[in-house]
Design brief:
Helix content: over 70%
Distance between the termini: 37 Å
Number of strands: 0
Radius of gyration: 21 Å
Shape: globular
Strand content: under 5%
Number of helices: 18
CATH topology: Growth Hormone, Chain: A
Structural class: mainly alpha
CATH class: Mainly Alpha
CATH architecture: Up-down Bundle
C-alpha cells in the first residue's frame, strides 16, 4: 500500500468517526427537548396538538431545506456543509433556550430544522465519497446510521438528566455549548475526499467542458430514478415511525407515572438497539450483495411492532409497549442503510447528496411532519394514542413492505459515463 493509499484508508475512518459524532450531537437541538415536553407544555400552557406542531415544524423546515441542502452539499462540499450546519444549530439551540413564548419557540424550532438538513445530507455524502470503491460501503453507511441510536440514547437518556436537573431552558443552553464544541472539532479536522478537490480543480481548468445541466432539470433527472423514489417511500415510514417514538413515547410513559429519565431511556432503546441492525445489515449486504430480503424483513418487523404497540396502549399494557420499542428499532435500522445504498448506486457518487436530499426531504415533510402531528391530533379528539400507532402501522405496510418489492436490487455504482448522462 502506497503512502497516498494509506492516507486515504485512514482518512475514510476519520471522516466516518467525525460524521457519526456530528450526527450524534445534533440530536440535542433536534430531539433532546422531547423528554422535557411536559415541562414545556406546562411552562407555555399549550395542548397536545400544539406540542406536536413543535416537532412537525422542525421536520417541515428540515424537509424543505434538505431539498436544497443536498444540492448545496454537492456543490459547496459536503464536509464544509456539515461544519457550517453545526454552527447554525449551536446558534439555534441557544436562541431556543431563552425564547419566552410559544410562537417564538415555534419559530426557533423551524430555524433549527433548516440546520438539521445539511447535517443529514452532508454526512451521508461525506461517507459515500470516502467509502466508494471499497469493500466497506455497507459498514460505512450502516455505521453512520448507527449514529441515530447513539444520538437517541445520548439525547433522550443522558441529556434528559441535564434537562431534569437544570430545567429545560438552562439545559438547552448547555446543549448549545456541546454542539458548538463539535463545530470546532469538525472545523479543524473534517476534510473532503481528495476526489472532490480534483473535481473542483478540473472545473476551474476546463470550464468550457463542464456541460452538465444545472438547476431544476438536473434535479429532476436524479430524483426521478426508480431506485431513488422507492428509498424515499421507505424513509418516509422510517422517519415517521422514529418521530412518533421519540416525541410521544416519553410523554405517554410519563403520563403513566414513569420518571422522565426512565421514559427517555425506554424511548432511546428504539434507535440504540437499531445500531446492531444497521451494522449487521450493512456487513451482511457487503458480503452477499443482496439487499431486498433484508429491506422486506425490516418493513415487516416495523409494521408488526407498531400493531402490537397500538394494542398494548389500548389495553394499558405499557410494559409490553416498552418491550416492543427495541424490536421495532432493530427492524427499522436493518433496512435504512440499504435503501440509501440503492439510491447511491443508481445516481453515482457525484449526485449522491442531491438524491439523499430528496429522500430525506420526503421523509421529513411527510413522515416527520405528519406522523407525530396525527398522533397528537388523534389523542386530542379520541383521547387515546393507540389509533395513531395503528395508522402508522398501516402506512408502514404500504411504504416499507409493498413498495420496496419493486426496487432493482443492484450492488454496482453507475459508471462515469452513466453519471454524466444522469447530470445531462
Amino acid at each position: 500500500m502506497t503512502l497516498n493509499e494509506e492516507v486515504k484508508s485512514s482518512g475514510k475512518w476519520i471522516a466516518l468517526i467525525l460524521c457519526v459524532l456530528s450526527s450524534v450531537v445534533i440530536n440535542i437541538p433536534y430531539l433532546g427537548y422531547s423528554t422535557a415536553l411536559p415541562q414545556i407544555m406546562l411552562d407555555l400552557n399549550i395542548n397536545y396538538t400544539q406540542a406536536s406542531i413543535l416537532s412537525s415544524a422542525t421536520a417541515l423546515t428540515a424537509g424543505i431545506g434538505v431539498l436544497f441542502g443536498g444540492i448545496l452539499a454537492d456543490k459547496w462540499g459536503p464536509a464544509r456543509s456539515v461544519t457550517f450546519a453545526l454552527l447554525w444549530l449551536a446558534i439555534g439551540q441557544i436562541i431556543f433556550a431563552f425564547m419566552p413564548s410559544y410562537s417564538l419557540i415555534l419559530a426557533t424550532r423551524m430555524f433549527i430544522g433548516l440546520g438539521v438538513t445539511l447535517i443529514f445530507a452532508g454526512t451521508m455524502a461525506v461517507v459515500v465519497r470516502w467509502f466508494e470503491g471499497t469493500n466497506h460501503m455497507g459498514v460505512g453507511v450502516g455505521g453512520l446510521l448507527s449514529s441515530d441510536g447513539l444520538g437517541g440514547m445520548f439525547s433522550l437518556y443522558g441529556y434528559a438528566f441535564i434537562l431534569s436537573y437544570f430545567g429545560w431552558r438552562t439545559g438547552s443552553a448547555i446543549g448549545a455549548a456541546v454542539v458548538f464544541a463539535m463545530f470546532l472539532i469538525c472545523y479543524f479536522y473534517l476534510r473532503e475526499h481528495p476526489s472532490y478537490y480534483q473535481e473542483e480543480k478540473e472545473k476551474k481548468l476546463h470550464p468550457v467542458n463542464n456541460t452538465e445541466q444545472t438547476g431544476f432539470k438536473r434535479w429532476v433527472s436524479i430524483v426521478m430514478q426508480k431506485n431513488v423514489l422507492i428509498p424515499a417511500c421507505f424513509i418516509i415510514g422510517y422517519i415517521g415511525a422514529n418521530a412518533v417514538i421519540v416525541y410521544w413515547i416519553p410523554t405517554i410513559l410519563q403520563e403513566q407515572g414513569w420518571s422522565s429519565e426512565l421514559a427517555g431511556f425506554i424511548s432511546a432503546l428504539y434507535p440504540f438497539v437499531g445500531i446492531a441492525g444497521a451494522l449487521a445489515s450493512g456487513s451482511i449486504s457487503d458480503r452477499v450483495g443482496k439487499k431486498k430480503p433484508l429491506v422486506l424483513i425490516s418493513g415487516l418487523g416495523m409494521a408488526a411492532s407498531f400493531i402490537v404497540s397500538a394494542i398494548a396502549i389500548g389495553a394499558g399494557q405499557y410494559t409490553l409497549l416498552a418491550a416492543m420499542l427495541p424490536i421495532a428499532g432493530f427492524c427499522a435500522y436493518i433496512g435504512s442503510p440499504l435503501v440509501y445504498i440503492w439510491a447511491a448506486n443508481a445516481v453515482g457518487v457525484k449526485n449522491v447528496a442531491t438524491a439523499n436530499g430528496f429522500i430525506l426531504a420526503a421523509g421529513f415533510l411527510i413522515g416527520g411532519t405528519l406522523y407525530p402531528f396525527v398522533c397528537g391530533y388523534l389523542k386530542d379528539i379520541l383521547g387515546t394514542y393507540s389509533s395513531g400507532f395503528m395508522a402508522a402501522a398501516i402506512s408502514l405496510v404500504i411504504l416499507n413492505v409493498i413498495i420496496p418489492l419493486f426496487a432493482d436490487d443492484t450492488n454496482e455504482f453507475v459508471t462515469d459515463d452513466e453519471n454524466k448522462a444522469i447530470a445531462n
